Amino acid sequence: MQRANVVLSILSQKAHSKHQFASERCYRYFYNPDFYAQAYRNLYGSHTELEDRVVTEWIEVMKREGYQPSTTATPTVWDEVMQEVVRMIITALTSSYESRQARIILPISRLEAVQALTKHYNGAVWALSGDVTSILSSLPSSYFLQLLAQRIRDGRFIEVLRRILRAGILQTTKGLQVALINMVMQEWEGRLASNANHDTYVRYGAEWILFIEGQRSEALHRIEELECCMKRAWQRSIPTQLCRLHHLVDQPVRFLQYDVTCERELGEHLSHLPYPTRHLKLRLPGDIIKEALRPFRRHGKPTHHSSRLHLSIPQMITLYNREMAELHQSYYMATNANKRLREFQYVHYQSLLKTMARKENRSVKQIVKKYGIPVQNRAGTGMKLRVGWKEPHSSKVVVYYDQPLYLPPDSVARKRIAW
User: Fold this and answer.
1) Do the beta carbons of residue 190 and residue 95 sit within 8 Å?
2) What sign has the CA pseudo-torsion 195, 127, 139, 30?
3) Which end of the chain, N or C, is surrounded by fewer C-beta atoms within 10 Å?
4) How do beta strands 104-105 and 200-204 pair?
5) Pairwise CA distance, residues 261 & 263, whole Å
6) CA of residue 27 relative to chain centroid, distance
7) Whole-angstrom Cα distance, residue 391 to residue 410?
8) Euclidean distance between CA atoms 186 and 182, whole angstroms
9) Nearest-CA neighbor of 170 among 287, 110, 50, 83?
């Protein structure tokens, strides 16, 4: 049998080349062991593999059309793998408008979505933003099945999705949710792509933002278009959380946990232009940092993390290191990233020291003396101590995250983390 990625690539190419393409034999992919292996790797990491015996049992059940999702609150491994297989197939068959219109941007990662904001910003001051999550839970199962039937004319595959929706375990699997959101938003995004304007649209998962060139009347017209699409396709009036209008100069837009605003560019080199030029600003909101610091602070001061006292010192340092690196990777594009991330880093590092001190029944000063490793100051004027550990019989050294927070994370920072 063909590899899963080859089959999915072929389906995606057909969906892109033929707008009305519909696959008539999707259920047979449940007989392909590589689909289950690929889904399992997507869910649990590339280093994990399914046992051949388990896959063979699953395939035999699918040949009898006997798959029944679990009705418990926590889905089984099979349920998660099946939903991931369904998601991969639906995603491949859901054509993206990105390849046809550069103004419709559907990134595959959160980082690409944030980068697309600044790269494709068109200087607009009006923006629409929304979240489709509430719509997903309010739409009936029959609507998703009706949309899917336009792309998949295979009753047995449709029946598998019907059983998944009926079992009520969809809310626990974000991957399949995103695939269904793509189907729900397809008509609205198709209409945007057909418009002869210069609006820029970015969506990642359930969150989307539309930069509208022109006056407020143009923005209100887009809201009317969206409301017409909803009434025709979803038989529902437009909810507040789905579409909100913002003036970017006065009112920030919360998108992917960034506050998005715009500012007018000033300078003599721009004075000859008949219109003002603007640039986009991404800011890291204070409430995001406040929430992230909740486990590490008590009564406004750094404190130890009780649930991590069972970890060994290397595991503890590695975990704190990874948390700081991931936060830096997520928010380094914010204009106030250095200030906000330094605020988090101070409390986070002090929490690490106090957790290590509590574990070994020592003072923080003794912990720094025992585990401190000299590292160079950011200004390059001297050395300072950062707690870390050295692997025995190896030259590898891991210290707490100490990269410049005003710069993008580099490869050196990632290499210093013991994932």
Assistant:
1) no
2) positive
3) C
4) parallel
5) 7
6) 29
7) 23
8) 6
9) 83
- Nearest of 391, 415, 375, 409 to residue 315 by alpha carbon: 391
Give the rounded distance of the alpha carbon of 300 from its chain centre: 30
Identify which of 405, 399, 403 has the alpha carbon closest to the alpha carbon of residue 413.
Answer: 403
* Angle between helices 337-360 and 313-331 in degrees, nearest 10: 170
- Judged by DSSP in three states, 375 sits in strand
- Tens digits of residue pLDDT in 317-373: 999 999 999 999 999 999 999 999 999 999 999 999 999 999 999 999 999 999 988
The answer for 66, left when phi > 0, alpha when psi is -120 to 50, beta otherwise, is: alpha
DSSP for 308-333, please give it: GTTS-HHHHHHHHHHHHHHHHHHHTT
Integer CA distances (angstroms), 291 to 257, 288, 296, 328, in order: 12, 5, 10, 16
Enter the pTM of the model: 0.74
**Of 87, 264, 278, residue with least CA distance to 174:** 87
Instruction: Retrieve residue 340's tokens.
Output: 């906000």
The DSSP secondary structure of 99-143, one letter per residue, reads TT-TTEE--SSHHHHHHHHHHH----SEEEEEE-HHHHHHS-HHH
Pairing of strands 126-131, 244-247: antiparallel
Question: Which of 192-206, 371-385, 395-409 has the highest mean predicted lDDT (pLDDT)?
Answer: 395-409
Say if residue 227 is exposed, middle or buried (CB neighbours under 10 Å; 0-12, 13-18, 19+): middle
- Starting from the edge strand earliest in sequence, which strands make up the sheet with 104-105, in order? 104-105, 200-204, 207-212, 126-131, 244-247
Among 292, 314, 301, 418, smallest CA distance to 354 is for 301
d(CA 36, CA 42): 10
Place of tokens 């609205």: 188
